[in-house]
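Postdoc handover notes: sequence design on the structure in folder B. Input tokens:
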């Protein structure tokens, strides 16, 4: 599979491996700096090789070889030879494993260097190690490996952030294993930065006197300043950069950008928090897609209300029956059956969609909610489930605007003229989620709904375009030039109902 990778990708993989190896062995260069400081203070340049060669062998040679072995599973994944899951544990533990071996090499190195006075007294004296106290020996063999471990751990953690970002951007994978602990990292970093130099100097104060004491303290102080400056840089980057990435992503989400997905770049709680942030954004995207899709079949405002209710109610989307005052509007296309006979299915659907789009606009503009499409008609309400002040007036205005919009144009590619009939009624309605199981629909029930549907049908009998009930007429007052058509027996009602027509060509008498 390696041959299938483009040369630029192979070059990037080689660069990532090379950077890791350099970071892993970078402690060798710091060790050389410490040796140089020691030589500057104590002299003995002619025997520097006795100290430097073992350091190069362990911290450079052996460490380089071992680091290549540690990186091998990651390299195989990057080349497409193994799955992400097969190397994820190694990726997550890369800083810890690398730092552990560096600490072991450092312990062996300093144990050997500081034991020279026991079995090579001549070179030891030339190196300035003659007369070293047991306390200083133990402190050096413990404190320096601890520092080398800490330095390497945070250097590789900083590198890990870049590697995880590359894997995320190129392969779309993120860490899912978290072995580190942010608090532990912070405590270790603070202790090493503050205690190791102080402990080394305290040991020198109690171990030596005179010029030897001054020389030992000078070496420890100079080494600490250089080491801590470098370590502080990588410690701060390793601990703070993942938080910065997450903070910037949150800012983008707060600005309405839900296309955010950030790489998990740390193996601790911050990394886990980043993964949960990505999961949260994925849920928000799905919710937004659901709302948009839902809005294509249910009025968008109703969809948004239901989703908000689900969120605030712990996912309980069903609403029990509730009663309220509302104005109901039913519309239908006159002669639609005849029109459907001479249009192809595609032409019919195109004309109908064009028509319904035209009808929807005035309803929404005046605060109404479309509940459902019934063939070539629709059922809309004003004031339930969404509040609409002056709902009767708003519904009548919407009816007038619909008639004016429909009467002045044709629909579909074939230019079909469509006339619409509208019935409007105002009164108490019952609203609730109706359905079974997981299929629910918010709808309105009651005599007011039934009356609006009957008024729409009565337009055929009276050759009118808009019919409203007495309750709607009374709620509107003198705002519209209604024409009384007397009382009529309506199916489903025992008593006659007073009805009124409204000419869409006439203007509102007052606003």
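Designed sequence:
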């Amino acid at each position: 599979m390696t041959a299938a990778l483009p040369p630029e990708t192979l070059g990037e993989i080689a660069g990532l491996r090379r950077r890791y190896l350099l970071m892993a062995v970078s402690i060798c260069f710091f060790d050389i700096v410490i040796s140089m400081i020691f030589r500057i203070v104590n002299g003995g340049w002619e025997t520097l090789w006795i100290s430097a060669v073992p350091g190069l062998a362990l911290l450079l040679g052996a460490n380089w070889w071992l680091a290549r072995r540690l990186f091998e599973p990651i390299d195989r994944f990057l080349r497409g030879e193994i799955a992400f899951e097969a190397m994820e544990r190694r990726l997550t533990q890369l800083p810890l494993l690398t730092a552990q071996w560096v600490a072991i090499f450092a312990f062996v190195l300093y144990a050997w260097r500081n034991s020279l006075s026991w079995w090579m007294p001549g070179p030891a004296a030339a190196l300035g190690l003659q007369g070293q106290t047991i306390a200083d020996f133990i402190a050096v063999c413990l404190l320096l490996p601890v520092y080398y471990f800490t330095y390497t751990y945070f250097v590789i953690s900083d590198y890990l952030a870049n590697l995880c970002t590359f894997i995320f951007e190129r392969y779309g994978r993120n860490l899912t294993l978290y072995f580190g602990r942010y608090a532990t990292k912070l405590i270790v970093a603070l202790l090493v930065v503050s205690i190791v130099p102080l402990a080394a100097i305290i040991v020198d104060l109690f171990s030596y006197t005179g010029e030897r004491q001054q020389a030992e303290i000078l070496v420890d102080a100079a080494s600490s300043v250089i080491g801590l400056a470098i370590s502080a840089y990588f410690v701060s980057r390793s601990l703070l950069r993942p938080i910065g990435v997450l903070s910037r992503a949150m800012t983008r989400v707060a600005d309405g950008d839900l296309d955010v997905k950030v790489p998990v770049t740390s193996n601790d709680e911050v990394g886990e928090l980043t993964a949960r942030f990505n999961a949260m954004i994925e849920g928000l995207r799905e919710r937004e897609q659901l709302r948009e899709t839902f809005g294509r079949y249910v009025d968008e405002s109703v969809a948004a209300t239901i989703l908000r209710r689900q969120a605030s109610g712990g996912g309980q989307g069903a609403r029990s029956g509730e009663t309220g005052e509302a104005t109901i509007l039913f519309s239908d296309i006159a002669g639609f059956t005849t029109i459907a006979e001479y249009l192809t299915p595609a032409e019919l659907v195109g004309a109908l969609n064009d028509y319904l789009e035209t009808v929807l606009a005035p309803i929404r503009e005046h605060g109404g909610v479309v509940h459902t499409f019934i063939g070539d008609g629709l059922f809309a309400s004003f004031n339930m489930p969404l509040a609409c002040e002056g709902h009767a007036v708003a519904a009548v205005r919407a009816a007038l605007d619909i008639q004016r919009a429909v009467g002045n144009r044709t629909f579909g590619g074939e230019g079909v003229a469509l006339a619409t009939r509208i019935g409007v009624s105002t009164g108490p309605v019952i609203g609730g989620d109706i359905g079974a199981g997981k299929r629910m629909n918010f709808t309105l029930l009651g005599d007011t709904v039934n009356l609006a549907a009957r008024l729409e049908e009565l337009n055929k009998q009276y050759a009118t375009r808009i019919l409203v009930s007495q309750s709607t007429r009374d709620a509107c007052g003198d705002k519209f030039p209604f024409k009384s058509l007397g009382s009529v027996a309506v199916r489903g009602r025992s008593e006659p109902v007073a009805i009124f027509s409204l000419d869409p060509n006439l203007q509102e008498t007052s606003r």
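Context for whoever picks this up: The longest strand covers residues 420-436. Don't rerun without checking with the PI first.
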